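Researcher: Good morning. I'm working through a list of sequences from a screen, and I'd like to move beyond sequence-only analysis. For each chain I'm collecting a predicted structure so we can compare shapes side by side. This is the next one on the list. No need for commentary yet; just the structure.
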Amino acid sequence: MACLFLHNGSGNLSHNYRATTVAWLQRHLNSNSHIAICAKLSELYSLILTGMEKKKCLEQCFKQFDSDKLSVQIPWLCAYLATQPSVNFTAEEINGIKVRLVNIIETLSGQQYFEAACGSLAELLRRSVFGLNETEKTILVSSVSDNQFSSLCELLGKIAASRKDILTSKMKELAVKCLGFLSLHSSSTVLYEKILVQLFACGEIAAQPELQFIVGNALFDAAFGESSPSRRNIFVETEEYFLERNLSITKLDSIEKRIANLLEILMNIKLRHANRHLRQAALIWLFTLMKRCVVTKLNCIMDNLGSIQHAFINGLTETNEFSQEVASEGLGVIFELGSEEQKKVMVEELVNTLSTGRKRLDPIAPNTRLFAKDELGTTPTGENLTTYQELCNLATDLNQPDLIYNTIMQQAESLMEPYLAQLVPKLYRYRYDPDLKVQGAMRSIWQAVTVSKKSVTEEYANAIFDELLSTLTDPQWRIRESSCLALADLLSGYCTDKITERFGQLFEILYRVQDDVKESVRIAAGRALSSLIKITVRKCSSVNGAKATQLLGMVLPIIIEKGVGSSIKINKMLSLNIIMDIVKEAGLTLQEHINIIVPCLLDSLSEEESTFLNYLAARSSLDELEVLDSARMSVAHSSPMMSTLRYIVPCINDSVFNTLGDKLIEQLRSSVGVTTRTGACQFIIDLCLQRQQLMMSYKMVRVLLNGLNDRNPVIKKQFSSCLSYLLPFSSKREANRVLDYIKQKLRNEQDKEKMTVLHLMRALSRNTEILSDSLSAVVPFIFLYKCQEVAKNDEAGKRNLEMWDELWSELVPDTSSAMRLYRKEMIEVALVTLNTSSIFAIKAQAAKVLATVAESGVLNDDVDYAELLYDNLTSALHGRIWDGKEKLIEAISALLRSAGKNLALKWNEATIETKFLPLWEQCSKKSEKYNGEAILCAAMFCEMTAYNKIAQQVMSSNSDETTSEVSSVNHPKTYDYLIKIVPAIAHLLLSFDGAELFDRIEQVVALLKSNIFWKVKQALIIELPYFIQKCASHADFTTLFLAVSSLLTENDISQRRTFAQQCCFVLEYIVKRAQNKECILSLHKHTNIMETLKKATIVKSSALLDNLLKCE
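Model: Good morning. Structure tokens for this chain:
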């Protein structure tokens, strides 16, 4: 609208349109209090008015100035009315406006009026000189005294540098503009310098970058006086047009002097000042001056481009990031000003400075603060610290993110060509700076650098790698992080042979960076390592042949020593993964390095276990520890490390195994970890399964045998399993050594030793035939331990017994066949154990073995051997009674049952008495348990030999004991003893016949009718069917029948149904013998017996009555 009004003039607009516009502007001016809007409306209003209307409007404004009610638009209207072209205002009127505006400023009355007054004064000073002729201009200048000028300068300077909150940034900026427009070409040096003093003072307050840019423009305006392009009419004049009309040679000389003076002050004083705020402000002023002077290209600037460049380069060393950005932008500005030769020199200087670094020249006092709050450089470790050595100092966000190099590259690509080797490596890294703003700017620079060289990364890959390798351990975290990220991308796309040669060194450095104090650096290092691992695995593939082998030789020692051997868990895990990936890809190229890989992976089985497992192991019982170790072994054998070891097995040849075998032996012998030793065993098993020819020439049996002495049962099991696979490839001598070990341990009475050999034999029985030739030596021992007795609550003992049973089932087809084949060996082992063992439980086991062999009937046809066994058993009866000695008696009983008849045929009466004597001696022992078993055995002896004399002896003793015990029927222990020995009566009866048998039966009847405890009677009743069935005499069982019938009726009434049923069985056996005419049963005198039996419930359900009627 302003351009439209200026172009057409107020007279060219139609009356109605002009009137409508004027009314609209007046209405909005009077109703709006917003300062910026009022300013623009006032400018438009002043443009549309005619000359007379402007004079009239100014008079009205003066009246309002003098009244108490001043509107916000009045100062703006005065300023714009006084500065419009083609308006003949006098110097006096303009001075009046200025005085009124200064008065408002001095009184600081109201924020709105104050800001409007400052803005209006700046506009009045900016354009007022162009509306006056030379005479009026002289009058205007001379109307202000030096004191008034100084006072005004001080007032404006106070406002600009004030730290009061009531003064807004806009007020300060307007005050600075006023100071700049106060200067004229005709101003004295003193007055000009006063303006500079006030402007320079603005730089000493806390950093206000926006204000300092206004101060820089004000310095330029002050130096250029009326010739400053800032004073142009922005609607109708360009800067070039304005300078052409207002910049004469005389004025140019004055400006040259002023600018030269400003440069000297800024570069030699202000930029070297100890006050960091002033240095930052000076950088902004210098940058603004250079940017404003681009159009004029003053000689004082063109001749000092080098010095100005140095000033900006020094500005890059500032710790404040904004200062660095301004300095970098300033470098771009002066580069545009230079000639081709100057540009070449400046580029060389800049590259050298940024590449090698430059020391800061600013003085630092003891009380100098280097960093402000929230500025970079907050920690000694480099936190947020950027220096000019990093190109990230060149990033700027003033107007655009482009940096100095962007400008340089666009204008002087040929000049930069010689320096690409220096700059490209650094620029490549800076593209990955943690600061996203810097990162984006650096990518822009990189595009400018590589716009004409698409393969620049490939061309400088080695140089980039050298740069990154040197900065991976830089003290500053930003550099370390960016180096890692840059390295990750470089390796992914541009890995040259020269880079590959330094992979070992690179692995070592990255392992260190993996442990960086800063998390983001550790993450970046992880990315770099990931890229390095991928390229390493790819280059170690078997398709690369000799190169892969060479690379493995460089990296594997570092990976194992610095990675797997590291105390940092992430490095250990990463290194193990590297090795496992390499093994899967390398194939036969791995052969030269198997000797270091295998021990490493085996050790890792233990090292990578959770520490919680060790915690549990330290607090577990022996049984719990075995379960835990078994679980650990199972997990280790299914682990990735063990799977990797299986990949290695096919690659092992004779030359490799010659060295590897020694290392495996060392692992078996001295490794601390359970899983490492068991893993080594499993690895040897895999070798036995896949590389049998290797195992035939290497001896490990002795080491594995020694390992069986370990305290850990899991290790013993695994070593046993390994031996079972290894023995088929071992020599006969080695096999014999194992067999000798087995035989030696089988004779050991310690449970741990027996369990060791049990695990070994179980493994051997499953995997080899080595035991088939030595069954006669081991089977007796296996059967011996198979016969052990286990307590009900002994779970471990039950498991062990089950394993012995399983081993027995695996080695022999069935027990009866084994006894026929190995009876002599079994008896020999049992007898030796019986006579030599000091452990009663083992003696009892041996006795049980002999009892089992005897019961099997394998000695029926070998009377001499049976007699030898009997003599050995009775010989063993001598001495004290020990726990389980009754097993010996049981063995003798079993032998008598199976071979007693044959022995009796061989023995005469004298021999029988001699053979019986040791047994008879045992019958008088005080131990009731043992004594009872001896009496039963003696009864069995009497039955088998049918020798009446000794039977009478035993019977008499038994009757006496029974009779004596009846008197103490309330003694529980007595009942148990009687229950034990009463069954012997049934066996003793078989030794009598005729009248003597009748007398003995009467004794039995008397016992059954006595008041003795009913369970004693039950014990006898249970055994009577045996006597009735075996009895060879035609005896009279009538009294026995009546006594048992009475017991049946009594127990049926007492609800002892089991006892009554057993009595019924006895009666049925008697009736059966009577039916067969094998005994006498006369019941005709006892007719009531039938009626009594009929009432018994048990009898009703049996065939007793029917058979009895038939018998009658």
